[in-house]
Amino acid sequence: MPNNRRRLVGRVVSDKMDKTVVVAIDISKPHPIYRKVVRTTKKIYAHDESNTIPVGTVVRVVESKPLSKTKRWVVESVVEEIGNRVVEPVAEAAQEEIEEIQGDTGTADEGGEES
What we know:
Elements: E1 7-17, E2 20-30, E3 37-47, E4 58-63, E5 73-80, H1 92-114
Parallel strand pairs: 3-5
Antiparallel strand pairs: 1-2, 1-4, 2-3, 4-5
C-alpha cells in the first residue's frame, strides 16, 4: 500500500521548543485573475525527535497524526544543512601588505598630532 501522506520542504525558523521546530513553507502561485506570482509563507510546527536540527536548515516534513494541539507534522529528513563556514587564512604576502598599510596609517596619525 503506497504512503499517500503529504510531504513539504521548508526552512527551520525556530528551534526553541523541546522536540519541536517551526518550519516556514514558502508557496508561490499565480493570482487567479491577474496572473502575478504571489508568494506566501506558512509556518507549521513539526516534531523533531532528535532535537538537534538548528535554525536555517532545510528539511522535508511529512503529515502525521496529531501529536499535540498544534503539531501535525514530523521532520522526515534534512535536505540541506547549514555549513560551518571556514574562513581561509590570509596569505603571507597579503598579511605583509596589511601590516604595511597599518604601519603607514599609524605613523601618519602620530605625525599629525605633533604638528
